[in-house]
Design a protein that fits this description.
CATH topology: Metallo-beta-lactamase, Chain A
Radius of gyration: 16 Å
CATH architecture: 4-Layer Sandwich
Order of helices and strands: HEHEEEEEHEEH
Number of helices: 4
Number of strands: 8
Strand content: 15-25%
CATH class: Alpha Beta
Distance between the termini: 37 Å
Bound molecules: zinc ion
CATH superfamily: Ribonuclease Z/Hydroxyacylglutathione hydrolase-like
Largest sheet: 6 strands, mixed
Length: 161
């Protein structure tokens, strides 16, 4: 239980609404997420009130600002979060060295590549990446490698790492 960690108020931020990321949401009354993800969230059984968060917004946890970056592609409302004080990127599923699901109606490979290029603009703000699957943590140069792999897939070539 998250409540055992601190007596301070808790908020829940989801990087996106794939079922493996929201299955614990029932313990919270409110969820912070991109508004572009709300439909996906409700379709996957998401409950509670929905607090939209947007690119450039900074959620201040006191002395620990969290910057929101929109990175649609894996899902329509995927976000990444930069923990500015600790120089960590929380990447959701979009940057990881495990399998990244890019099949199905919500996935968009073109937007995914654009989003990763957008994310590269912020690499001076973090030193490592906390991915949700695969190795933990991963190095920042993984973003470039994932872009390269996605571009190869886009033109029909297999990418093996
Ligand atoms: Zn996912």
């Amino acid at each position: 239980m998250a409540q055992t960690i601190t007596d301070l108020p808790l908020i829940l931020i989801n990087t996106h609404a794939d079922p493996d990321h929201i299955s614990g949401n029932g313990g919270f009354d409110e969820v912070y997420m991109s508004p572009k993800e709300e439909g996906n969230y409700r379709e996957n059984g998401g409950t509670g009130s929905f607090h939209p968060i947007h690119e450039g917004e900074v959620i201040d946890l006191g002395d620990r600002p969290l910057r929101i970056i929109d990175i649609p592609g894996h899902t329509p409302g995927s976000i990444a979060i930069i923990d500015e004080k600790n120089r960590i990127l929380i990447s959701g599923d979009s940057v990881q060295d495990g399998d990244i699901f890019m099949f199905g109606p919500m996935r968009n490979l073109e937007r995914y590549i654009e989003s990763l290029k957008h994310l590269e603009k912020f690499t001076d703000m973090f030193d490592e990446i906390y991915a949700m699957h695969g190795s933990f943590p991963v190095k920042c140069d993984l973003i470039e490698k994932v872009i390269e792999g996605a571009q190869l897939i886009k033109v029909g070539k297999t990418w093996l790492c």
